Fold this sequence. Notes:
single chain, alpha/beta, Rossmann fold, 7-stranded mixed beta sheet, about 20% strand, globular, binds S-adenosylmethionine
Amino acid sequence: MTDDDAVARHYTKGDLAQRIMEAVHAVVPDMAHVTPRDLAPVDEFHIGGVKATETFTAKLGLRPGMTVLDVGSGIGGTARFVADAHDCLVTGIDLTPEFCAVATMLSAATGLSDVTEFHDGSAMTMPFHDGQFDAAMTLHVAMNIEDKAGLYREVARVLKPGAVFGIYDVMAGPEGGDLDFPVPWSATPATSYLATPDAMHALLADAGFTIEQEDDRRDFAIAFFDGLKKTAADGPPPLGLHLLMGADFKQKVGNMVANIAAGRCAPREMICRKT
Ligand SMILES: C[S@@+](CC[C@H](N)C(=O)[O-])C[C@H]1O[C@@H](n2cnc3c(N)ncnc32)[C@H](O)[C@@H]1O
């Protein structure tokens, strides 16, 4: 099995559309007016959820009408947030066909089909023109990709000169060492590839990016999970990331928190510009 197959299989649930819509029905009083905020508990599949998205996208200098690429767009929460809050046109691409189908469905449910679109495909060979986009972002994706040099070259190819590229990923932590598995992005070490921030600097420079801002999100992540622990004492709410992570979600999140606390991995943002 290729890495792409293994990664898509890891994320595929089979009945995600139905389970999400059932949960949405349970929590949203008026199905004719579902908002991106209503979906935020389930469709922002990265540490810190929509709070992290807000902080991260505020650093990108997005302007109304910009074309933005979301690399590894999942079920589309970040794409819808950027389309809605920043008034941009967002194109997502994701390896997991089920996620793309759910992303398209949720954009229709929130009335954002005209400003978001989702392509089922690999970030390594994207079906987009050279210099097509004004901006790109990627949240919690490169952990699944071994050939990061190829990934960042491909992102640079589809960006206009001077375009911003925001990365929010889990990177190797200062203490190093083997991660506890499973984690949300992989059940085993076979499809988990974390780069150190120093390695990222070199990879991004080689791909033609200058890093303009870098933020360690470790403390934010720890505080976020502490808050989650307090509110989750009664079990998960109907609409939550457990729908994306599956039955072992508690173990996956618990391992990730332990990995971050021990410095084996660390969430980090890098805001880059294509030179
Ligand atoms: C943890 S989820 C994050 C999804 C989304 N960025 C978010 O924050 O909600 C990781 C996503 O990366 C996608 N992915 C992993 N490897 C990929 C690749 N080579 N090309 C495109 N998408 C990929 C997976 O299918 C999955 O949807």
